[in-house]
């Protein structure tokens, strides 16, 4: 417990620093870098107790909690003026388009939410890391510089903290491997670490391979080491003696040189040195926390960091820190940079002092960065954006530090090696990586010039012009560099290097504009700058001013010019000084300072100034004419035309010069000879035509279209409007495309809104005038004509307009586009009317067809009665007539009153061979394309998984945790055609690149030949056996069969009368039987996620389950959309559902008789006692619609015999269906009542069941009747759909899904409680059965809640705020995360990160993939918050991006937050996304998306 009192000893010691170091020298090696890895959190706990707690006690002079309370009191009266939050990579930041001084002024999300900028035109984007929040910086904002949390206050400095940084040298740990005397251990052990450092030369795989070979570790351990090295910058890969570590170091260096000649950096450190270096990094984070308590603490720290050293030869601490930055590894750099952010950059004065130090060491820092291999965001040079973008600080650095000169001199020193003998740049054979790092320096020059001064001082003028002169010397090295000469005879052998020079010129494009803006803000600076620029241009050695002029004659005109043939002599496209001079001349014209120009510059020879730019234009024209094709593609790639300089030249003189430069003078003068035409140097006729066309086009631009501010009388708004109108006349464009197509200018965005508003207002006014005119004409026609003569053609009259009004004619011409839109709307409306009429006609035709069929059936029944009068002798005439009419018009699907199936399958046409075929039992099979997938759309217990080990799949739990859905697009094929097509798809798809990402061939997936929807099986079309249940048959068979039932003890008699009348079962063709097996195998394999097994007893069960679940999903969808139960599905959807039900019904013929009979007995045991059936689930643990489908489809197996294939007769089937439906409806009503009473103890629940049954049997009322009706309604709706597809009996036309009509269709009493009165004997049996149930404590309410996607906020910034507070549950670092929101359950996940990977089926997968397997049965729908993008997932290997449902004010999405406009939720898009998930179309959307994309490098979706 020495650490509890050590701070008191430090206070009493004469040398407090030495006392602290001695204590740390003892304690740090006991905590860090031990031989055994400590448990998670154990090391941090020891650090807090043994090291940081004593330091805090020494700091505050008392208990830290007491000292912190005092500091909080100080902070309550004064708050920091700046936020200073350091941004991590990928963190969302905000800037205000209205108030920010420049785009680099940003706010963190907390400050943005509490600022006035939230209601302004803001922009959001992802930070690259390394910056900090500018809240509180008065120079960063025009208004609203502080949020409500960081309002300015008064700084308070505590006197007691003046000595807290007396041991300041502990702040930075330089990478020396010798400890001071105080820190050295008393006994030096032979314990060392072999430390491997990060670099950017070696790949992940190379480092993993090296570690496996060098230190004999497995691949997983090597991957962990490599990830930590890349993240933190270094990692100790071996601990041992000095000899063993030296051997490991040699092995690593030797193995790393196999591929790349540069070996990996490896060092050997003593364990004590390693421990103290690790603790020094921990102290950096601790210092940030300490100095954040109070402004005074921060000021003391800054004073210590900037205090000059006692020895004049030593630099201050912050200077040593910056100069040592390139030698630190990545983790140490990050800590040091964050410490600078939170201290020195938070105060204006200390920020100024730091900026002066930074400028003083700028050249050395850039040299270290260029020689370094790490990225700029982890280099101290990246701090330039924080200091150079502050306007007052930038001007102060120009005045006191000559920062412009420093930056340009640094660039010149770096690029001096590329100067040739003519003092011009030549980048042939340059180092691309080094050159890229040199170009980064130009960003600092842009930062300095980003805000031009409003007030100039004499010192600022002198220093700025000094920097401009240095900049002009740099431009002189670029003027005319990399000249090219036309290649004749043969093609150039080696393509010259051009990208470096061209990239350099693109970098200077904005800098030239900024220099012009600075010069234009002061008249004297502008004139002096033009003088310097003109002098620099005249001093260039490669200018054409050295030749003697010659005279040329044409059309009685004399041209006195220096001839220069571009096709024969060298020419360069790099003319930065000419560009700058032309821009300064335009500024002189705009500001009016042109009148003073003769006092600074001799009279200008504009013809000579335009010479070089004109050569560029001629070069571009000749390149377009293919005259330079032998020079290769490098020249074509960099040719650009510049017309700015030509605005200075008189039109007549430039026209003459063009003829000479284009080498068309002799041609126009008629002096070209036939000898010249044959020469290779001369031009062909095609070349002459193209050059003439280019020259005339240039004349048009110069003479006629000088639409440039400063040259013609136009403003920037006029230029923007002209560009917008030209772009919109070419084609309709979205706002984002319009912005991209406009010139790259920051201010153009602010003008665009005003311009677009003006254009829209103009079009609206045009439309209003034309519409009013057309309406007046219609009114006149109505008043002067009869009703028969009136014709209304609004769009035609609006387009024609009034010919007598000239204003209206002009408006008519301008509104032609609007009228075309009106015509399209009118035509679309007429198309919709036609579609409605067509649907009405088809409905009437179908009704007439049904009536015709019913009349035919009535006539057939009358003929049957007349021919069999003996059977009706004992039947009353009135009863016979009424029953006959009822039978004819019966719309009952269940029971003895069952109606007649209207139609069977119509003749189907194969979509592949286009042949027509009837659906018959012995005919070749016809199949429907289908897709089977697992689903959680209906789940009431998200996250629950099902396995065949329990009662599932025979009994579906009531929560519908995971179901098997089968959907079909309804397209029909012959089975043989489908098999040929599937084989062809397999053969062709295997050769495609990454074909496994689109369809899974091993699991039988394919795309529908017609609609390209994803499928993985086919459903055979089973013919529906027509029901011949009429009145005489029903009466006769009922009497006989009831007598037989009473005489014969049934095998499964339970109180219900299962009628045992038999008929022979019709057999299917071999083709249909095979297709039944194909579909059943797919359903079984997908539903249970097992390998195909035809002998599995659950094969028929899974077919029944997918039938039931699909019907429930369709009913849920119809109810969600408010559509009627019947008549809402498309014909193809209805055909698919009908085929699925018939397929499920036919499974009993494909499966074993004994297996199906056993399944029936097990399912029936849930309702009534069945001998020899045990472990039956209770009624609260079963979904009764699944049970209904299983019992109805399996009961025919009771009639089968081993020798004879029998099936129940029509009467038996009708009564069996009726009794099963009654029994299940009663039990489901009891289930609803129990769920509404809540849960209690098991014996109480059993007594409740008995009491409920007794009351229901006695007819006692008092129950919540409406609640029961609402709970039972979904079951009855699903039953109606099921029996409709099973029996084919059409529903009544007025059936809308209400309970009364549903009961009528299902042959149920309108008062469902009457069932308990009608079946009293059955209720007694049920009471005995349910008293012995093992009741589950988990009860779900009925009706089930409707699953929807989670509610998203209307403002996207709310989601970004939520993501900013997200912390990875498995990681404590501050590295960039990808917060991803699950739209199904609302859980925020850490995606695409190794920290949250999980094991799924023995394979490492990302957090989203693992979550989708549990939450959505493999289907996932995620929103990547920082990328504003939806991710659809279908499996571990397949997924696709999808547009997010958030739109900006222009109705566009913003993936990756590229534009950064405010985003708001679009309900329609989100509803479309919900329907995609609800209708099980996610897999189809992914497949179609991947089919359209040409995937070259596949994304590892399993790691998401």
Textual characterization of the structure:
- It is a single chain.
- The strands form ten sheets. A five-stranded antiparallel beta sheet has the order 19-18-22-23-24. Strands 10, 11, 12 and 15 form a four-stranded antiparallel beta sheet that branches. Strands 4-3-5 form a three-stranded antiparallel beta sheet.
- Helix 2 packs antiparallel against helix 3, helix 13 packs across helix 16 (391-401) and helix 21 (499-520) packs parallel to helix 23 (576-591).
- The radius of gyration is 43 Å and the shape is globular.
- With 1504 residues, the chain is α+β, with helices and mostly antiparallel strands.
- Among the domains are: 458-714, no CATH class; 730-814; 826-889, no CATH class; 1356-1503, no CATH class.
- It contains 55 helices and 26 strands.
- Mean pLDDT is 76; it is low at 152-175, 641-656, 673-680, 797-815, 874-889, 1035-1060 and 1239-1245.
- InterPro entries: ClpS_core, E3_ligase_UBR-like_C, Ribosomal_bL12_C/ClpS-like, UBR-box_UBR1, UBR1-like, Znf_UBR.
- It catalyses: S-ubiquitinyl-[E2 ubiquitin-conjugating enzyme]-L-cysteine + [acceptor protein]-L-lysine = [E2 ubiquitin-conjugating enzyme]-L-cysteine + N(6)-ubiquitinyl-[acceptor protein]-L-lysine.
- This is E3 ubiquitin-protein ligase.
- Its EC number is 2.3.2.27.
- It comes from Sinocyclocheilus grahami (Dianchi golden-line fish).
How would you sum up this structure in a few lines?
The chain has 1504 residues and is α+β, with helices and mostly antiparallel strands.
């Amino acid at each position: 417990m020495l650490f509890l009192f050590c701070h008191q000893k430090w206070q009493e010691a004469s040398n407090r620093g030495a006392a602290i170091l001695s204590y740390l020298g003892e304690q740090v090696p006991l905590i860090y870098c031990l031989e055994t890895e400590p448990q998670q959190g154990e090391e941090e706990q020891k650090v807090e107790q043994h090291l940081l707690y004593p330091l805090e006690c020494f700091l505050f002079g008392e208990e830290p909690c007491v000292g912190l309370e005092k500091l909080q009191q100080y902070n309550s009266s004064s708050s920091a003026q700046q936020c200073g939050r350091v941004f991590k990579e990928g963190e969302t930041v905000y800037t205000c388009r209205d108030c920010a001084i420049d785009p680099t002024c940003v706010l963190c999300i907390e400050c943005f939410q509490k600022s006035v900028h939230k209601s302004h035109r803001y922009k959001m984007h992802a930070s690259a890391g390394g910056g900090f929040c500018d809240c509180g910086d008065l120079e960063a904002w025009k208004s609203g510089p502080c949020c409500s949390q960081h309002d300015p206050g008064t700084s308070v400095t505590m006197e007691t903290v003046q000595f807290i940084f007396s041991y300041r040298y502990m702040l930075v740990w330089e990478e020396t491997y010798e400890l001071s005397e105080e820190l050295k251990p008393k006994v030096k052990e032979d314990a060392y670490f072999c430390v491997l450092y990060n670099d950017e030369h070696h790949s992940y795989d190379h480092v993993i391979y090296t570690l496996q070979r060098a230190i004999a570790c497995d691949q997983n351990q090597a991957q962990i080491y490599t990830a930590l090295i890349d993240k933190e910058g270094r990692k100790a890969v071996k601990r041992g003696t000095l000899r063993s570590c030296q051997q490991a170091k040699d092995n690593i260096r030797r193995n790393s040189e196999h591929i790349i000649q540069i070996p990996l950096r490896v060092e050997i450190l003593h364990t004590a040195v390693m421990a103290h270096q690790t603790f020094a990094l921990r102290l950096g984070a601790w210092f940030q926390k300490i100095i954040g308590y109070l402004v005074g603490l921060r000021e003391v720290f800054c004073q210590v960091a900037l205090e000059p050293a006692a020895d004049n030869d030593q630099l201050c601490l912050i200077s040593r820190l910056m100069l040592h930055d390139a030698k630190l590894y990545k983790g140490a750099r990050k800590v040091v940079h964050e410490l600078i952010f939170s201290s020195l950059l938070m105060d204006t004065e200390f920020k100024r002092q730091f900026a002066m130090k930074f400028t003083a060491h700028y050249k050395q820092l850039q040299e270290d960065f260029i020689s370094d291999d790490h990225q700029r965001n982890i280099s101290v040079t990246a701090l330039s954006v924080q200091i150079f973008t502050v306007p007052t600080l930038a001007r102060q650095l120009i005045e006191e530090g000559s920062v412009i000169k420093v930056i340009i001199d640094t660039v010149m020193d770096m690029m001096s090696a590329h100067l040739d003998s003519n003092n011009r740049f030549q980048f042939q054979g340059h180092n691309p990586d080094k050159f890229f790092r040199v170009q980064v320096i130009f960003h600092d020059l842009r930062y300095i010039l980003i805000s031009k001064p409003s007030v100039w001082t004499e010192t600022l003028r002198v220093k700025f012009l000094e920097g401009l002169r240095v900049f002009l010397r740099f431009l002189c090295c670029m003027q005319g560099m990399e000249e090219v000469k036309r290649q004749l005879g043969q093609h150039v052998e080696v393509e010259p290097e051009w990208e470096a020079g061209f990239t350099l010129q693109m970098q200077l494009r904005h800098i030239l504009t900024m220099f012009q803006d600075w010069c234009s803000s002061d008249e004297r600076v502008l004139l002096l700058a033009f003088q310097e620029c003109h002098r620099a241009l005249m001093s260039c050695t490669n200018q054409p001013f050295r030749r003697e002029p010659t005279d040329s004659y044409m059309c009685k005109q004399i041209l006195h010019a220096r001839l220069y043939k571009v096709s024969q002599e060298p020419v360069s496209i790099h003319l930065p000084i000419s560009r700058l001079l032309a821009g300064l001349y335009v500024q002189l014209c705009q500001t009016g300072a042109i009148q003073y120009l003769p006092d600074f510059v001799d009279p200008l020879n504009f013809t000579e100034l335009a010479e070089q730019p004109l050569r560029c234009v001629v070069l571009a024209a000749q390149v377009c004419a293919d005259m330079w094709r032998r020079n290769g593609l490098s020249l074509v790639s960099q040719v650009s035309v510049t017309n700015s300089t030509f605005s200075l030249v008189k039109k007549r003189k430039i026209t003459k010069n063009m003829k000479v430069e284009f080498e068309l003078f002799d041609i126009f003068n008629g002096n070209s000879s036939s000898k010249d035409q044959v020469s290779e140097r001369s031009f062909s006729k095609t070349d002459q035509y193209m050059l003439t066309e280019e020259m005339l086009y240039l004349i048009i631009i110069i003479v006629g279209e000088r639409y440039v501010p400063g040259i013609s009388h136009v403003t920037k708004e006029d230029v923007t409007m002209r560009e917008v109108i030209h772009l919109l006349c070419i084609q309709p464009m979205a706002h984002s495309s319009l912005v991209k197509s406009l010139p790259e200018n920051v201010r153009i965005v602010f003008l665009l809104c005003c311009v677009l508003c003006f254009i829209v207002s103009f079009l609206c006014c045009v439309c209003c005038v034309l519409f009013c005119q057309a309406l007046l004409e219609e009114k006149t026609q109505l008043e002067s004509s009869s009703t028969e003569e009136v014709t209304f053609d609004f769009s035609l009259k609006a387009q024609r307009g009034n010919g007598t009004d000239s204003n209206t004619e002009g408006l008519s011409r301008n509104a032609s586009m609007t009228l075309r839109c009106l015509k399209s709307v009118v035509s679309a409306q007429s198309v919709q009317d036609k579609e409605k009429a067509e649907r009405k006609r088809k409905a009437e035709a179908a009704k007439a067809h049904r009536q015709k069929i019913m009349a035919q059936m009535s006539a057939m029944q009358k003929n049957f009665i007349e021919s069999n009068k003996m059977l009706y002798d004992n039947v009353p005439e009135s009863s016979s007539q009424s029953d006959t009419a009822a039978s004819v018009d019966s719309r009952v699907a269940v029971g003895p009153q069952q109606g007649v199936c209207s139609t069977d399958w119509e003749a189907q046409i194969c979509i592949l061979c286009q042949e027509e075929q009837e659906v018959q039992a012995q005919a070749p099979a016809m199949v429907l394309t289908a897709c089977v997938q697992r689903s959680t759309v209906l789940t009431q217990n998200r996250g629950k998984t099902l396995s065949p080990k329990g009662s599932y799949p025979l009994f579906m739990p009531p929560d519908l945790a995971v179901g098997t859905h089968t959907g079909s697009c309804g397209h029909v094929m012959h089975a043989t055609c489908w098999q040929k097509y599937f084989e062809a798809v397999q053969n062709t798809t295997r050769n495609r690149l990454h074909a496994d990402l689109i369809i899974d061939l091993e699991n039988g997936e394919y795309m529908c030949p017609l609609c390209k929807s994803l499928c993985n099986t086919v459903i055979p079309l089973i013919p529906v056996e027509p029901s011949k249940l009429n009145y005489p048959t029903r009466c006769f068979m009922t009497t006989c069969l009831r007598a037989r039932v009473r005489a014969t003890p049934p095998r499964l008699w339970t109180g219900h009368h299962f009628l045992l009348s038999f008929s022979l079962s019709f057999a299917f063709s071999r083709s249909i039987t095979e297709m039944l097996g194909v579909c059943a195998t797919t359903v079984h394999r997908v539903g249970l996620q097992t390998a195909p097994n035809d002998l599995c007893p659950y094969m028929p069960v899974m077919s029944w389950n997918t039938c039931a679940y699909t019907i429930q999903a369709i009913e849920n969808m119809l109810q969600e959309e408010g559509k009627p139960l019947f008549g809402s599905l498309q014909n193809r959807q209805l055909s698919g559902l009908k085929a699925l039900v018939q397929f499920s019904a036919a499974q009993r013929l494909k499966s074993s008789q004994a297996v199906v009979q056993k399944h029936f007995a097990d399912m029936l045991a849930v309702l009534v006692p069945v001998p020899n059936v045990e472990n039956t689930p209770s009624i609260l643990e079963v979904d009764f619609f699944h049970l209904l489908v299983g019992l109805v489809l399996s009961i025919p197996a009771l009639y089968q015999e081993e020798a004879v294939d029998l099936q129940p007769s029509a009467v038996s089937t009708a009564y069996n269906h009726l009794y099963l439906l009654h029994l299940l409806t009663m039990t489901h009503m009891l289930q609803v009542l129990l769920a509404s009473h809540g849960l209690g103890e098991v014996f109480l629940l059993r007594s409740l069941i008995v009491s409920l049954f007794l009351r229901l049997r006695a007819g006692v009322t008092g129950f919540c009747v409406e609640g029961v009706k609402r709970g039972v309604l979904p079951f009855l709706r699903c039953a109606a759909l099921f029996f409709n597809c099973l029996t084919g009996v059409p529903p009544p036309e007025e059936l809308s899904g209400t309970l009364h009509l549903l009961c009528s269709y299902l042959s149920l009493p309108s008062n469902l409680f009457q069932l308990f009165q009608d079946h009293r004997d059955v209720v007694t049996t049920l009471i005995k059965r349910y008293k012995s149930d093992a009741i589950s404590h988990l009860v779900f309410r009925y009706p089930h809640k409707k699953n929807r996607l989670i509610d998203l906020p209307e403002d996207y910034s709310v989601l970004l705020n939520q993501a900013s507070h997200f912390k990875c549950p498995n990681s404590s670092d501050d590295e960039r995360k990808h917060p991803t929101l699950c739209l199904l359950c609302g859980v925020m996940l850490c995606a695409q990160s190794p920290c949250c990977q999980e094991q799924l089926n023995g394979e490492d997968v990302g957090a989203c993939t693992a979550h989708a397997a549990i939450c959505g049965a493999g289907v996932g729908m995620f929103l990547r918050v920082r990328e504003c993008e939806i991710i659809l997932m279908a499996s571990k290997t397949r997924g696709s991006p999808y547009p997010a449902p958030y739109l900006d004010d222009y109705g566009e999405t913003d993936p990756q937050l590229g534009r950064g406009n405010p985003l708001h939720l679009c309900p329609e898009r989100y509803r479309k996304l919900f329907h995609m998930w609800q209708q099980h179309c996610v897999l189809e959307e992914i497949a179609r998306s991947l089919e359209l994309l040409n995937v070259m490098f596949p994304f590892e979706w399993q790691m998401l």
